[in-house]
Amino acid sequence: MESDSEMVAFPLLLTPIESNYRACTIPYRFPSDNPRKATPTELQWIDLFLNSIPSFKKRAEADDTVSDSAARAEKFAQRYSEILEDFKKDPESHGGPPDCVLLCRLREQILRELGFRDIFKKVKDEENAKAISLFKEVIRLNDSFEEGPKRLENLARGIFAGNIFDLGSAQLAEVFSRDGMSFLASCQNLVPRPWVVDDLDSFKVRWSKKSWKKASFRSFFLQAIIFVDNSGADIILGILPFARELLRRGTQVVLAANDLPSINDVTYHELIEIISKLKDEKGMLEGVDTSNLLIANSGNDLPVIDLASVSQELAYLASDADLVVLEGMGRGIETNLYAQFKCDSVKIGMVKHPEVAQFLGGRLYDCVFKYNEVSSQ
């Protein structure tokens, strides 16, 4: 963390007493497991992170902002491999037992100690430029849908299609390096519904609970907090069209982005720059006023998030929200799929690890749209 501000719990998260919150969806171990022996699930995830090392090493070697990048990249690969192998022998080493938060944190810590600040910067910039050039066309396609469930479903499909741009997945990193990815083709090739977690129809009902006619022109959700994920198509062609629709319906939208770079996740400063490029001289986002669009620094520095520790800025902005959206596999599935909130919530993302698909009982590249409604609202 670059900020010295004290981190606080996300205010809309139910207290641990009420929800038993832990930033880990998949149970890596149980109290009955031997603390000195790695469980099958721990071994599976350690191997997942081991398999990702070559792609991270390749990105680090190509980082021309770091002197001796090749030698430093080799040190990263060696150190991280050794730590992961240590976990196999003793899961309590290095601050364990391991879970996805700790495994991500150790990887980022080693990279930063070796001088690597943002090894995915070049590819993020390239993908942001491509996505910005497609933004108007995607908005035009979205706006061609009449008000109603089909329009919302098209926006949701756009989020899934954008979310596939994830260089934290070894398989997708290989595909991207070889072939690139097409946003519009991804929209058309999503796995068919029903998805592995599919509450979209329930959300459609809530979405239109207060009829949005020209006479009323009001959304049920007055404020939405959206935890965003990746750069490129994900944020620009997936999340921003959804955020624009909320703004169009009168909702105040807070986009919460990472403080520091991690994989190809968009950062707070990058998101400010992206939106400034997309707005016109009147501050409009393709015809929609952005005065109710706020960008917040979440205080996070990983591709996953522990909501027990967010920035004070975000906590202040989120105190009265009606909707929380956690987008992406890391934030919405691997760490917070079962997190409970004091308001309505949506967890949305694509399943990009076979281990996650196995846990959920779904398919690789399956989709998750988990909606929880707070009945007291």
Automatic annotation (TrEMBL):
GO cellular component, one term: cytosol
Gene Ontology terms, MF aspect: ATP binding; hydrolase activity; metal ion binding; pantothenate kinase activity
GO terms classed as biological process: coenzyme A biosynthetic process
Span of domain Damage-control phosphatase ARMT1-like metal-binding: 52-368
Pfam family, one: ARMT1-like_dom
Needed cofactors: Mn(2+); Ni(2+)
Keyword Transmembrane helix: no
Domain of life: Eukaryota
Gene3D superfamilies: AF1104-like, Uncharacterised protein PF01937, DUF89, domain 3
Keywords, in A-Z order: Hydrolase, Manganese, Metal-binding, Nickel
PANTHER family xref list: 4'-PHOSPHOPANTETHEINE PHOSPHATASE (PTHR12280:SF35), PANTOTHENATE KINASE (PTHR12280)
Name this protein carries in UniProt: Damage-control phosphatase ARMT1-like metal-binding domain-containing protein
Organism encoding this protein: Linum tenue
